[in-house]
Amino acid sequence: MANLVYKRVSTDQQSTARQNLVLDEAGIEDLVAFEEAPGTSSRLHPLQRPKFRELLNYARPGDTVHISEMFRLVRGTGVQTLAAAGELQRDLQRELTYDGLRAAEAKGSKGGRRPAVSAAKTADVRAAYLEGRTIAALARDHGVSRGAIRTAVADLLPDHAAINEDSPAPELPVTLDMPGKVADFLRARELDPAEQEALDQGVTVRRGQGYTLRVSAVPAVHLGLLARCQPLDGGHG
């Protein structure tokens, strides 16, 4: 059984670096890659794309096809919403990992040394965050970890609070940027009071023709909201 990987970018100015990173994180071994020529349009039906046809001809029963994001294969409102939910889930997993490290630090443990934001750049980082730049984007911009960015903007975070070293570390809020399509879907659902409050208190950040909703809540609330996105993946609920 083979692991088949499909890659595509929409313009020749783009690269597959992000796709490679996502696939590397998935730990796929002994993969066989099928990469479309740069600029292969998403408007083409997958069966009209040379490399995808080649993948189908190569595939055998039992093989697994891996695609970093659904929109690499097909476009459409439903697919984009599903892809957005998947991205939200990956972000939540990353943030929960950081949340665990932060809780451990509150108890005196350290999760390893993280690169810091230089003093010369701290003011720029803080200003960009207040203007709506996400922590993940700032980390990429400055080549540091998300934890380093959080340290630089710690007093600006919605979850900023003093921690009593003599008490157990509480379940700390996590701030995530929720894709607008996911937020719209959730607003049409019947939510628990805590979930509804998290959405109502979210901060809208405009991005081009769309938006994201910056939501701060404890992990349990985020997980509950994510569970309500299951119908987007063909589930029921």
UniProtKB/TrEMBL annotation:
Spell out the InterPro entries in the cross-references: Resolv_N, Resolvase-like_N_sf
Q: Where is the Resolvase/invertase-type recombinase catalytic domain?
A: 3-110
SUPFAM superfamilies to which the protein is assigned, alphabetical: Resolvase-like (SSF53041)
User: Which GO molecular-function terms appear in the entry?
Assistant: DNA binding; DNA strand exchange activity
One Pfam entry for this protein is: Resolvase
The protein's name: Resolvase/invertase-type recombinase catalytic domain-containing protein
